[in-house]
Amino acid sequence: MCGIIGITSTKPVSSSIINSLKKLEYRGYDSAGIATLLDGKINEVKCEGRVKALETNISKIKMLGTVGIGHVRWATHGVPSTLNAHPHSSESVSVVHNGIIENSTLLKKFLVEKGHKFKSQTDTEVIVHLITEYLKENDLKNSILKMLKKLHGSFALGIIFKDQPDLIVGARRGSPLAVGYGPNENYLGSDSYALKSMTNKITYLDDGEFCILKKNSVEFFDDTGKKVNKSVLELSNEEGDYDKGDYKHFMAKEIEEQPITIKNCINEYIDKINNDINLLNFPWKQNEISSIVLIGCGTAYHSCLMAKHWFEQLTDLDISVDIASEFRYRKNKFKSESLYIFVSQSGETADTYAALDLCNKNKMKTCSVVNVVESSIARDSKFVLPIHCGPEIGVASTKAFLGQMLVLYLFSIKIAFVRGSIDKDKYQTKIKSLLSLADLVKNTLDTDNQIQSACNSFVDAKGSMFLGRGSSFPIALEGALKLKELAYIHAEGYPAGEMKHGPLALIEDGMPVVVIAPRDYYYNKTISNMQEVIARGAKVLLITNKSTDEIFSENIWQKIEVENTDDDLLPFLITIPLQKLAYHSALKKGYDIDKPRNLAKSVTVE
Ligand code: AGP
């Protein structure tokens, strides 16, 4: 998963490419590179590390080319290094690539036999040599077509040619690609966000298509080379909030702005006058749906698990949840009365998109819960429920998790009411409780001091566990994921009742264990499980909600109590201290909080 950009213009393009690459860094940040063309010569600058380093390198030379391509990389084939950074070039072409070429080993063999010499360990380099090979006997368009036919796997490509002074070829299969239009210049980018500072006029390529961009024209072709007409979308000019402000990290900002994002989302969905939830234009009647399948990856998968809990509590529907990378290769039994819900912050996650695509191909009812409404997943779903969180830049998902849970919860209570599973009174009481959620989340943000002191034990630990039952189990998984990805501490989320079937053997003296036990239906059972780990030496950080009832347990190491509210809303509050636990642990260890090692914000390879 990488980010690509291309610009053909009448003026030098390197600084605009750098600016766009900075916006694409959420897709990968282990190396970056740029190639521009001037007077029939391709100039390349590449480096390991961030776009900032690339910018510094470029500032030392003059890159005056008026056509160019750029890339931010998340390594798949070959270590992160300057050599493996894109673009990859031959004497005649230069290529940037997002995706994976699955048959690169075979293609490389074929090309080496033809005398091509490879410089990098990447799969991408075969594309360079294939085009170079085909250009010997074919025109540009036929060379591209031949090259595309040879590739197996997923890709979005940007290609410039030594002999074509203002031309860029773009092509996509599996990975997203957008074309943008400007005055005497045109653009190619992995998403519209990267192009937003230059244009709001966008065309998205469909799977299998390629395009030829010149500074004053754009042509689109299908996979047979037939010209296709495509419409131009005008995106809103609204620039999201991409600034850290006074915060040290985007993640800190994104945690703190959760009361606002919750309020915004509630304002979008709740009709306060009629005490009702608006699901405008929901395309299916309630008797057309008898089951729901929720699909996502990582944090989004956890919000699916959370939604399963609510849907099961509140409705008569059959609910199942799947991890997108599993679902896409499973022998699924597609049922016409199932609703498939795809949850994704970015809307570009390759596995989630593939699962959606599979459902669309099987003519299923597809709905997505996304943050980025211009994303591929949103565009290709039959119905979209946006989470209205604004840009989430930190790689660790925080406000989007709360946003996903919120929208799925709103959806579950609306469906429950429409299907008659809950009466009007219960429905409207739940809506009323939701109206105070933003303030409750705001109060919970004050847990900083307590969390900071608890962090020390996590930072020094060999490993940790997060335990919960019922609605607290998905939150336990999410708390563990945050600690892993940010503080690089081994953390396992587990159903509290399952510990005795094996994981209890891991507990040893001083091991930090987070127990999530709100005073809900599962409370007493979870407290018993907590006793079992305390008895084996665990240092328990208990997260519960305020109550006048005493907790019948001794030797609890630390306790955090969130406000009282409807049981359904407690997961929102309990998530906050867990986000902070991961944040402060990473801060203490001096790690790169917004860009943890080995990760990327948007996972566009499978
Ligand atoms: C969470 O903190 C992650 N960085 C990751 O698990 C993420 O939620 C996952 O990759 C899915 O992303 P998406 O929501 O953009 O589809």
Q: What's this model, at a glance?
A:
This protein is an alpha/beta fold. Helices cover 34% and strands 24% of the residues.
Name the shape in a single word. globular
Distance between the termini: 9 Å
- Overall CATH architecture of the largest domain: 4-Layer Sandwich
Helical stretch tally: 18
Strand order of the largest sheet: 3-2-4-1-10-9-11-15
Point out poorly predicted stretches.
none
**CATH domain class name of the largest domain:** Alpha Beta
Strand content range: 15-25%
Describe this entry's structure for a reader.
The protein is of the alpha/beta class and 606 residues long. It folds into 3 domains: 2-234, Aminohydrolase, N-terminal nucleophile (Ntn) domain (Glutamine Phosphoribosylpyrophosphate, subunit 1, domain 1), CATH 3.60.20; 250-435, Glucose-6-phosphate isomerase like protein, domain 1 (Rossmann fold, 3-Layer(aba) Sandwich); 448-589, 3-Layer(aba) Sandwich (Rossmann fold). It has an 8-stranded antiparallel sheet, with helices on one face. The model has no long low-confidence stretch (mean pLDDT 95). The structure holds 2-deoxy-2-amino glucitol-6-phosphate. The site of 2-deoxy-2-amino glucitol-6-phosphate (AGP) has 15 residues, from helix 8.
